[in-house]
Amino acid sequence: MKTARLEAFSDGVFAIAITLLVIEIKVPEDTHDLAHKLLELWPSYLGYTISFLVIGLVWANHHAMFDHIAVADRMLLFLNTLLLLLVALIPFTAGVLASALRNGESERTAVVLYGVVLVAGGFPFNAIWEYARRDHRLLGPTITPKEAQAISRRFLLGPVLYGIGTALGALLPVLGIITFALLIPFYWLPPLLTRSRRGVAASDRPD
Questions:
Q1: What pTM does this model have?
Q2: Fewer CB atoms near the end CB (10 Å): N or C, the chain?
């Protein structure tokens, strides 16, 4: 089967999950000293920002992955459903993290929970790609086996890095949060740089 319906359903889940994040930012009921009360919401702002960018990153890589996956079967649909199950859980973990930081209690548990969900999400994400690229059976002509293998190595690194962040968060919560935040530009920038280099190379080619 074609992947259009799978992608449309996935985009809907991504959109809902990323929108639900803002619900955690509660409007102050008492507007006396409003500036101070808004500043007190910084844990919610932090959880919202990191989680919004993380979900956006997963969506972008999911979109890039399905640029090369031409067809889907029931197993691929199942693996994609597992990924979406964990993506939909991120707003909950973001709320737990913000609440723990705001109350100054159980920050370690909250950071570990957040990281565990990110690590777990990496498994179905990688499973989708590995299943699709096996014998190049679900991939289209837009990518070679060698290029698919290079993408695979990059994807496989994700759960490892998020696992390191989770372990650091178990020791010191702020280190885990910093690691999760730093992984966002790490995973955004290389594709942008690669695309830029490809554009330069294309402009150098004679017509």
A1: 0.86
A2: C
Spell out the residues 6+ positions from residue 34 whose beta carbon is closer than 8 angstroms to its own. 28
Residue 102 lies in a domain: yes
Q: What contacts 91, CB < 8 A, 6 or more positions away?
A: 17, 20, 21, 23, 24, 51
User: pLDDT averaged over the chain?
Assistant: 88
Domains: count for the chain? 1
Strand partners, 181: none
What number of residues does the chain have? 207
Q: Which residues pair with 2 in a beta bridge?
A: 71
d(CA 62, CA 187): 13
Residue pair 180/115 in contact (Cβ under 8 Å)? The answer is yes
Q: Is residue 196 part of a domain?
A: no
139 forms bridges with which residues in the sheet? 69
Calpha distance 99→47 (Å, rounded): 9
